Amino acid sequence: MNFVLKEEKGFSYIEEGEGETLLLLHGLMGALSNWDEVIKEFSKNYRVIIPLLPIYELPLLTTGVRSLSKFVHKFIKYKQLSNVVLLGNSLGGHVGLIYVLAHPGYVKALVLTGSSGLYENAFGGSFPRRESIDFVREKVQFTFYDPKTATEELVQEVYQMINDRHKVIRILAMAKSAIRHNMKTELRKITMPVSLIWGRDDKITPPEVAVEFNELLPNAELHWIDKCGHAPMMEQPEEFNKYLQLFLDKIKK
């Protein structure tokens, strides 16, 4: 499904629907399209907004998770958002955690899926070999439980990305920043409701990461999705949307 990408004041974003705001944050090598099924389902009753995070536009010296959190704050202020439900996948979850610690007054609740912030096995434990499409295909498949989820189109997108020297330098800088910025000691300060929706077969942020998040966050609930890897909203969208709806209903009460 194609959604219109809006360009305003240096921001690129998708905005669909009306009502309470769901703000969605994509991962390091993720695209806005990763959230297609969430937009389709929830834009019927919610205002769903996804900003394009400026991973490749930041100066190399400031490429890091904190800079992305500052960008999210500028975007939220520009759009005059308040009381949002913030959803983050992978790096997007990590950025969301940093954001709510810095600006808790803007966020009502948090949804994390495959979030970094405690541990992540980026690139399946090895540097991306840029010249090999087969290697890239293998690493993209590593993201999912079912290798078929890694479509040829997705493989080609990642291949092009890591063969762009400007982009790959920033991808690696951002990945290193995420690994260095461990949030274990800070999570207890996040007292808002948090829903952890996790793939039981996630190899990048494995199940024990979700268990640790659940133990450290004071007001968290954990839901497992079977036969699912690092991006539940892509691989098992119906299950993901079901748990998201249950959480949204619960925090309305």
From TrEMBL:
Gene3D superfamilies: alpha/beta hydrolase
Keywords tagged on the record: Hydrolase
Limits of the AB hydrolase-1 domain: 22-241
Gene Ontology MF annotations: hydrolase activity
Protein name per the record: Alpha/beta hydrolase
The organism of origin for this protein: Mucilaginibacter aquariorum
